[in-house]
Design goal:
Chain A is of the alpha/beta class. Helices cover about 45% and strands about 15% of the residues of chain A. Chain A has 17 helices and 14 strands. In chain A, helix 7 runs parallel beside helix 9 and helix 10 packs across helix 12. Chain A starts with a strand and ends in a 9-residue tail after the last helix. The model of chain A has no long low-confidence stretch (mean pLDDT about 95). Chain B has 23 helices and 16 strands. About 5% of the residues of chain B have low confidence. Chain B starts with a strand and ends with a helix. In chain B, helix 15 links the parallel strand 11 and strand 12. In chain B, the strands form four sheets. In chain B, strands 12-11-10-13-14 form a five-stranded parallel beta sheet, with helices on both faces. Classes of the chains: A alpha/beta (about 425), B alpha/beta (about 525). Chains A and B meet through helix 2, strand 3, helix 3, helix 4 and helix 5 of A and strand 1, helix 2, helix 3, helix 4 and helix 5 of B. The complex binds iron/sulfur cluster (2 copies). One iron/sulfur cluster sits at the interface of chains A and B.
Chain lengths: ~425, ~525
Amino acid sequence: MSGATLLKESGPKEVFCGLTSIVWLHRRMPDAFFLVVGSRTCAHLIQSAAGVMIFAEPRFGTAILEERDLAGLADAHDELNRVVKNLLARRPEIKTLFLVGSCPSEVIKIDLSRVAENLNIELKGQVTVLNYSGSGIETTFTQGEDGALKALIPLMPKSDQKKLLLVGTLANAVEDRLISIFNRLGIDNVESFPPRQSTELPSIGPETKVLLTQPYLTDTARELKNKGAEIIEAPFPLGVTGSTLWIQAAANSFGIDKSIIDSILNPLISRAKKALEPHVEKLSGKKLFLLPESQLEIPLARFLSNECGMEIVEIGTPYLNRDLMKAEIDLLPPDCRIVEGQHVEKQLDRVRDSSPDLVVCGMGLANPLEAEGISTKWSIEMVFSPIHGIDQASDLAELFSRPLRRHDILNPTKTLTSN
Amino acid sequence: MELTLWTYEGPPHIGAMRIATSMKKLHYVLHAPQGDTYADLLFTMIERRGSRPPVTYTTFQARDLGGDTAELVKGHIKEAVDRFNPEALLVGESCTAELIQDQPGSLAKGMGFDIPIVSLELPAYSKKENWGGSETFYQIVRTLLKDHSKELKQTWQEEKRRPRVNLLGPTLLGFRCRDDVLEIQKLLGQYGIDVNVVAPLGASPADILRIPNADVNVCLYPEIAESTCIWLERNLNIPFTTTVPLGVGATQDFLKELHKVLEMEIPQSVNESNNSKLTWYSNSVDSNYLTGKRVFIFGDGTHALAAARIANEELGFKVVGLGTYSREMARKVRPAAKALGLEALITNDYLEVEDAIKETSPELVLGTQMERHSAKRLGIPCAVISTPMHVQDVPARYSPQMGWEGANVIFDDWVHPLMMGLEEHLIGMFKHDFEFVDGHQSHLGHLGGKGNQNTNKEAIKTNLQDSVITDGDPIWTHEGEKELSKIPFFVRGKVRRNTENYARQAGCREINEETLYDAKAHYKA
Ligand code: SF4
Ligand code: SF4
C-alpha cells in the first residue's frame, strides 16, 4: 500500500444504520418490498431519512415489535407471518419481499431466515421472501445494500456466457450511459445487479466478470466470487481517472485492444477535463475533511485531491476493506490520513482545529458545522446522485464547488451564527 | 406486531431528546446503537438548529454485546460529563438497549458525580414520543424538586408584587412552540402577570429549581406538561390552568381561568372583540362563504381539540370529522367529538385517516403534514395544524398559534387554502362560462377537484358493474347521472350514497333526476 496513514478510532459514532439503504433500493426495484422487522425507532429512522411523506404508498414498512412479541419468540414468528400475509393481501403486486433484520430483532434472535423459508414454501409462486440484516449493531448505512444483494445471489441463475456484470445500485441514466460505452468498446453482454426488476436477476457463472460500481459491497463480492465469477480489480468509477481506469480494467479483462479503448475513451476524457475546469478553479487549494458515512469517502477524496486539487485533511471511513480499496488507496497522495471508525467528538475537534473549507458529513452534523462557518456536503447525496462515470465528473465536482460558491455569495467576509 | 408504513410519533426516547435539546446545561447519555443517531437530524434539519442536540450515544455494536456493555456505558457517561460539564445528567436507553438491560441509569448513579442524575425508563415497545417527552419532563422536575419543602408560600398579594406564572410544556419539534411562548408572554405582560420560568424550552436545571417561585403553572401543552403540573400541584401546592389559549374563545377562557386562579379581577378588555382580527374577519361579508364549510380535523390532541372549537364557534364551519393519533388524549377528544355529533377517530394509521377523509368528503382538511399529502391526492384544500414536524412548519416569520395573534395566524392559514368569498361568488355567477371547469377551486387543492371526479367516474363504473351482479341494486339513469354531476364534487360522493340508500329503501330500481330530489328531500340534505 502507498503512503497513506491508516488509523483506527473508536467511540461515539454519528452514522446511519444499514436500514437506510432501503431508501434507494426500493426505488431501484419497484416490484420489491422491504419489511423491516424492528421497533418504532427503525420505522422512524427510515421515514425521517427517506422523507417518506412524498410517497403515496412507500414500498417499505416496518413490522413494529410490541411488548408481547418480546415475551414469546414462537409468537413473534406467528405474528410476523400474519403481518406478511396482511401486507401481501394489500400489495399483491409485490414480487420479492425482503425481511430486513434490525437491532431489536437480532438481539431477541428472531430467526428471519426461518420465517422466510416457511413463507416461501407457503407462498410458492406468488412472491419470493428473502432476508438480510440492516441493523445498526451489525451494519452502517450503505452496508444494507450489501446485505440485500447478498440475499439475492442464491437466486441468480447459472450461466456459462461470457459477460460483464456491473454490481451496485446506480442511477438509471448513468447505468445506461456506462453500458453504452461498454457496448461501443465491444463488450455486448453487460448486465447489472441489482436489476431494475427484482425478478429479472442476471445469471452468473465462471465466465462472468464482475465490475463493482460501489465500494461497499464486500459480502456481495465474496459471494459472487464463490459462485465462480471473477472480480475485476479497479478503482471506483468516480472522476475522470477513476472511471477511466475502471472502464479500462474491464476492457483489458475482455482482451479489448488498447487502441480501441483509447480511441473511444480519449475524446470523453478530454471533454470531461474541460468541463471540470471551472470547478477545479473553485476547489483547488481548498481544504477538505471527510467524516465517515457512505464508504465513498476514499474514492471521493482521491478524485477531489488528484483531479480537483483539494487538500485532504482527513478521510474518515466507517470501516476499511483493504482488498476492495487497495486500488483507491494506491492512488491517494502520500501522507493522506485515513481514519477508520469514529469518535465523533474528537473528530469534530479535529475539524475545528484544521478549519477546512468543506466537510463531507451526515445530515445530523451539517447545519451545526454550517453555523460554525464551515461549508458542508451531505454524504447521502452521493448515493442518490448520478455521479459515476467520465461524463459525470464535472457534475460530481459541482456537488462540492456549489457549497463553496454559495458560501462566498452569501458571506463574503463574515461567519454565520445561529441559535 | 403492528404494520406501519408511516408513523405520527417516534419512539419515546425521541420525546426525551426533545426535552433534553429544548433545555440548556443538560446532557443526555443515550444507550443506543449507531443508527439511532439519525435523531439528531430532526433537530438540525427540520428545526434548522445550528447546534447538535446535547446527546451522547453509546453506539454499541454487535461485537460489544458479548463483552461488557456496562463498562462501555460508563466510559461514555464519564466522557460526556467531563466534556460537557452539565448541571444535570439524563441517562436512558433506546429500544435496543432496553433489551440488553444494562440499566445505565443506575450505573450512572453509582459513578459518584455531584450533579443530579435523572434516570429514564421509557418502555419503547409500548409507548411513543409524546409520552416519552412528558415522562422525561416529569422526571427532571421531580428529581430536581423532590426535596423542595411544601411550606406555605406567601401569595403575590401578601408579598406585594406582581403575580408570577410558569409556562410549562413548550418544546422543540412542538408545533410553533417558540412563537407561542413569545405571544403568551406578551399577552400576560399586558395583564400585569410576569413569567417566572418557561420550561422545558430554554430552561436550565437551575431554572427548574426556580419553578416553585411562581403562583400558578400555565399548562401550555398538556401532552408534555400535564403530568408535571399535576405533580407540582400535589407536592408543591402550585395550581395550574387547564385551558389552552388557542383561538379567540379559548384565549378569553384562559385569561379568565388564570385571573380566577390568581384571585385577580377579570378585566373587561378580555371580552373585547377587537383583541384579534379573527372575530371581525369572520363576521365580515367576505366570510359568508365560510358558512357551514365541511371540515375534517386530525392531529395531536391539543391542536385537534382547539381546531374543532375554532372551526365550529369562530369560523362557522361544520366539523365533519375529528380525531387524534394520540391515545393519551383520546379521553378528551372523544367527548368533544360527541358534542359535535361525531365519533372521534383515534388511530395511528394514516391510511385509516385518509379513508375517513374520503368517506366524509370535506371541503377543507386540518391535519398534519400527512393529511396534507392525503388531501392533495384527493384534491381537497388543507392546512397543517399539528405535529409531526416538517421543515415547512418552522417558518422564518413569526407565526404563533396561541393568543390573539395566534388567532390571526390561524384565520389566514386556514382560510387561504380555500377560495376567498368574492372569488367563490364570482365563480358561482360565471360557472357556465366555458373557462370554468367542473370542480374549479383554489390553486392549493391541486387536482382542482378532478381527482374526485375521476374517483367518482371509477365509482360509477364499479357501481354499474355491481348492479349487474347484484340485481337488487338501483341503476343510475343518464338523467340521474347528469343531475348528480351538477352537485359540487365534495358532496357528490355522499349524495350518491344517500340517494342509493334511499332508492333501495324506497324500492326504486332506477335512479333518475326525480329520485335524486326525492332523496334530497328525504335526507334534507
Ligand atoms: S422528512 Fe419531512 S416530510 Fe418526511 S417525514 Fe420527516 S418531516 Fe415529514
Ligand atoms: S440502529 Fe438498530 S434500532 Fe436503530 S434504527 Fe437502525 S436497526 Fe433500528
